[in-house]
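User: Sequence recovery, please. Input:
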């Protein structure tokens, strides 16, 4: 099972939507809340190259935000990414 990490804030509706998407697919994920932690937010920005939340990673690969993961889901590519076994 691929490792999914989602950087979030506690007030972000897109973060909730992203988490709901993975929960609906029964995919476990690690949530990293950057709401009140500037160091974690800086880490997220460094790893993703983006400043907005959520930022979603699958096996350490930056996927993007909710719109990006939703587009992957609609196209079927998300299921392909999630079905790959770690190398």
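Assistant: Recovered sequence (87 residues):
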């Amino acid at each position: 099972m691929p490792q999914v990490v989602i950087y979030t804030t506690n007030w972000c509706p897109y973060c909730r939507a992203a988490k709901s998407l993975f929960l609906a697919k029964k995919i476990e994920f690690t949530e990293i809340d950057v709401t009140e932690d500037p160091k974690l937010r800086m880490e997220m920005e460094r790893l993703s190259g983006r400043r907005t939340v959520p930022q979603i990673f699958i096996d350490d690969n930056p996927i993007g935000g909710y719109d990006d993961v939703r587009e992957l889901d609609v196209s079927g590519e998300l299921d392909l990414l999630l079905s790959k076994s770690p190398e």
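The radius of gyration is 12 Å.
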